[in-house]
Amino acid sequence: MTGSRADVRPLLRARDLTKRFTTRGGGGPLGRKSVFTAVDSVSFEVFPHETLALVGESGSGKSTTARLVAKLMEATDGTIEFAGRDVTHARGTDLARFRNDVQVVFQDPFSSLNPRHTVERILTAPLVYQGLPIPGGRRAFAGELMERVGLNPDHLHRYPAQFSGGQAQRIGIARALAVGPKLVICDEAVSALDVSVQAQVMDLLLRLQRESGFSYLFIAHDLAVVRRISHRIAVMKQGVIVESGPCAEVFEHPRDPYTRTLLAAIPRIDPEWDRRRREGAAEHASTTASPEELP
């Protein structure tokens, strides 16, 4: 990301987000209680038209953070602001408005798509549930969404099980776009896909961002996956953000030992890997559109 943020208001601002879970050991109601802190005082910002990647190993707290931001679970402490509004305790119409602005694409599309509903019904459901008008009617609206994500609109009558994993994930992305969100949270959205399909879906996500100008909070455990799509990266370990910065800077000059460990875990194809990684980071910095440059 180039330029100054001094005059740019964050789209999303999380401050000191904390999530604690109380468990009871020993079995039964008399078991001893213990408290597990999954997310510990995490703060970050997502600016308009940019992609922030939240990266860490399984159990690092990144998916819990995503669910807190999407208000799929309540934070124990901390605040969430969206478009200048405090939505930490949003309820009723305020929560409904927030849910229109923030959508989630989940890791497993088959578990997040109703297997008993046709694609047409799945894609129009967000508007139906919100009581919003459907431009042009259900079939035309759903067909347009299918075309936007590279699927055949003639397949609206099919059910999720009749699609491949990559196609089903495209349907999940189309559903997220149905209400015109300002922020899309991708929670390990490509980790369950084959490598070749991952690349196709990443290309799709980049194109959709260029066309619509929304922001991404991109959750992943693999730094190699986020390198191409991200403007900035925040690295999480054991519920804490240990490092954050522009994508090229994190790849070229990682400060935290944990970040260096994640970078070292990227498969090396040949002895020239380090040189190509450096060149790729420099190319990313020069070719990736900054949030201000996106439409």
Automatic annotation (TrEMBL):
GO molecular function: ATP binding
Region Disordered, annotated ranges: 274-295
Bias type Polar residues, positions: 285-295
Record's keyword terms, sorted: ATP-binding, Nucleotide-binding, Transport
Matching Pfam families: ABC_tran, oligo_HPY
Superkingdom of origin: Bacteria
Record-linked InterPro entries: AAA+_ATPase (IPR003593), ABC_transp_ATP-bind (IPR050319), ABC_transporter-like_ATP-bd (IPR003439), ABC_transporter-like_CS (IPR017871), Oligopep_ABC_C (IPR013563), P-loop_NTPase (IPR027417)
Family: Belongs to the ABC transporter superfamily.
Stated name of the protein: ATP-binding cassette domain-containing protein
Source organism per UniProt: Streptomyces milbemycinicus
